[in-house]
Write a structure and sequence with these properties.
alpha/beta; 5-stranded mixed beta sheet; two-stranded antiparallel ribbon; 7 strands; elongated
Length: 309
């Protein structure tokens, strides 16, 4: 029984060490969520206003541009998937990958060719293991992205949307990331960035004048609406990618905090269970020793009584 008690003690010691690690990771993730949330809140107004500006230009001009013009029969699309560089975050990366797989399957069923772009080692490893083609990939910044990282990701996407499909370009640009809703809720979503869907964008705020029965915004474009859209295209894509990276980072920290809290709770339950088993084994060992002592004393007493006769 003594050997079994030693086994329980070793397991308790090992689980206790694991619990310290998971508790520390939980606290680190919790502290980083606040910073990530602030970055999301700071970037969202800029992205929304930039989208509103693009919408205003598109709706008040007749210019055909990659930002706003729907291709009648799109044949090639780009999908940007944002995952994490590290694990221990529950189903965070796998849920985003599932959303990307679902989107890809839908696009392929519509007869479109999909070019994949991946952010995060988990997504890169998933596609590499399944021998899927990836146009570009980026790693090393998913838990704390900067605007420079967003520009690096957006650059090949902008180049692909500006080229014709005959030259390797794409007709549509989609992004799959995990939207931060709250500390307890993070939802994988897929959004079409280009061409712009006006029904899903923020309304442009502008003064209007009335001509006949039609209200029109007061906008003048210098040097031209097309040049304005050309200038806004990279800023729009960069801001949307940056906001998605920040949302994904906040979601990753929240998912890791929740996963590590669950691991810590499970470790505590396991320690309690092992402690009970160790106590039971020790009690059984003590009981056995007492029984052996009592039995020995009884045998000695019987032997002494026999010799007295």
């Amino acid at each position: 029984m003594g050997a079994q008690i030693r086994v329980y003690k070793r397991r308790i010691k090992s689980v206790t060490a694991t619990k310290k690690i998971t508790k520390a990771m939980e606290m680190i993730a919790a502290s980083r969520i606040i910073k990530a949330q602030r970055k999301v809140e700071a970037s969202t107004p800029y992205a929304d206003e930039l989208t509103a500006a693009v919408t205003a230009v598109a709706q008040t001009s007749e210019v055909k541009h990659a930002l706003t013009t729907e291709v009648e029969r799109p044949v090639r699309v780009a999908v940007l998937l944002i995952t994490s560089d590290r694990g221990l975050a529950g189903g965070y990366s796998s849920n985003a990958i599932k959303a990307a797989d679902s989107l890809t399957a839908r696009l392929v069923s519509e007869g479109k060719q999909v070019d994949s772009y991946i952010v995060g080692r988990k997504g890169v490893a998933y596609y590499a293991f399944r021998e899927r083609t990836v146009q570009r990939s980026w790693t090393g910044f998913t838990d704390s992205p900067t605007y420079a990282d967003a520009k690096a990701v957006a650059e090949p996407l902008i180049a692909s949307i500006e080229k014709s499909t005959a030259d390797g370009g794409v007709d549509e640009l989609h992004i799959v990331f995990t939207e931060f809703v709250s500390m307890m809720t993070q939802t994988p979503v897929d959004r079409r960035m280009l061409p712009l869907s006006f029904e899903h964008t923020a309304e442009a705020s502008a003064e209007v004048f009335v001509k006949g029965n039609e209200a029109r915004p007061l906008y003048d474009f210098e040097p031209s609406a097309e040049r304005v859209l050309d200038a806004l295209l990279p800023r729009y894509v960069e801001s949307r990618v940056y906001n998605a990276l920040l949302q994904a980072a906040a979601s990753e920290h929240a998912a890791r905090r929740r996963a590590m809290k669950s691991a810590t709770d499970n470790a505590e339950d396991l320690i309690k269970s092992l402690t009970r088993l160790a106590n039971a084994a020790r009690q059984a060992d003590i009981t056995q020793e007492i029984s052996e002592i009592v039995g020995g004393a009884s045998a000695l007493a019987d032997a002494t009584a026999g010799s007295d006769r």
